[in-house]
Amino acid sequence: MRPPYSRRASQLKASDIRELLKLTKKPKIISFAGGLPDPQCFPYKEVDVLSTEVIEEDYVKALQYGTTEGFNRLRRALARRMNQKFRTKVHADEIIVTCGAQQGLDLISKVFIDRGDIILVENPSYLGALSAFRLFQAKFAGVPMDNDGLKTDKLEKALKKFEKKSKRPFLYTVPSFQNPTGVSMTLERRKELMELASRYDLVIVEDNPYGELRYSGKAMPPLKAMDKEGRVVYLGTLSKVLSPGMRIGWVAASEGIRHKLVLAKQATDLCTSTLIQYIAHKYITEGHMVRQIKKINAVYKRKRNIMLKAMDSEFPEEVSYTRPDGGIFIWVKFPKKVNSRELLKRSIKKEKVAFVPGDAFFINEGEGLDTARFNFSYPTEERIQEGIARLGRILKKELRA
Ligand SMILES: Cc1ncc(COP(=O)(O)O)c(C=O)c1O
Q1: What is the pTM of this model?
Q2: What is the pLDDT of residues 133-173, one digit of tens each?
Q3: Where does the chain hold its CATH 3.40.640.10 domain(s)?
Q4: Check: CATH 3.90.1150.10 for 9-43+291-400?
Q5: Is the CB of 209 under 6 A from ligand 1?
Q6: Does any ligand 1 atom lie closer than 6 A to the CB of residue 35?
Q7: Whole-angstrom Cα distance, residue 115 to residue 92?
Q8: Ligand 1 centroid to residue 345 C-alpha, Å
Q9: Fold type of domain 59-288
Q10: pLDDT digits over 332-385, tens only?
Q11: Is residue 34 lining ligand 1, measured as CB closer than 6 Å?
Q12: Residue 242 per-residue DSSP state
């Protein structure tokens, strides 16, 4: 049989990294590769009680189809939380509740991307966003980053190139505790970015799954809080603060864009799970979320500190890494002669430790081969210490050779 695949489907190929990382599912392997929350932090008892309450109180509505925009009381609760926490001025009407932030990326792709369009992205960037955009046959213009986040001077250079084109690219960015680098854009850069956006009429897609996971440093306003012209399309999610299995995310966008996204979602899945939206609404409005975020931040802060301390003592001096104020990732830079894909193979085989080679997050093949992403939220404290010590042993041996 020859299935009549679309051109789009020909883009769908499993990456070799994913194949390699399948090995990391074995319990003996200490894996820093995923981006999973710590299951010890899941508030399963509260979710259990709230699920029963939702069914008892309103099963007729909770088990029914809902509107595509989402459950109104949840939309109001999400807008209120954003406005209190981040000083945004988002109205509940601007919110669409999605099946995770990832669906937001899919809907944005459907609404904004034609085949061959160029998207501006941080380089390196979140792999799931690159995959979502690639599926719509997008191309990328990478904007380099440093420890202060996306380099706005480089962005301006790129924007100048598109000034006269009839269709300009949008920018996709994760300004706070970025996946994969853990880097946060400074306030200065955020201001510069918003000025550029205004000057070059740029739409910004701001993805902020980690904004509330901050363990040190100063709080940064999301770009959405600095957006006076409705040009920031904001993606939020409960995945990293509550549970990724509940699949609750949201998009906050100005009226015209929101309307298009709703139409795209209608054709995609009609609505996000009503039952889970009811549970999430209760979870937020009955005060559980505030306690949960405090708890997670305390656990992840300890884990971040343990990973950094282990890297400080176990990694050879030539290896450098970010010291993020929040989020769940540390970005490691090896000396040039290290090929992190090869290192991964050896480290799985010899020491049973895994991480993600950094080239996976770059837009061009072969870029960032001397980098790697390490996750600290999922492994236990003991496994963080042990895994980093084991990797340190390999690195010391290889760099001496
Ligand atoms: C930057 C970024 N955006 C989006 C997502 C997807 O989140 P969700 O579970 O809400 O779909 C992730 C998950 O790791 C992420 O790191």
Answers
A1: 0.97
A2: 999 999 999 999 999 999 999 999 999 998 888 778 999 99
A3: 59-288
A4: yes
A5: yes
A6: yes
A7: 33
A8: 26
A9: Aspartate Aminotransferase; domain 2 (3.40.640)
A10: 999 999 999 999 999 999 999 999 999 999 999 999 999 999 999 999 999 999
A11: no
A12: T
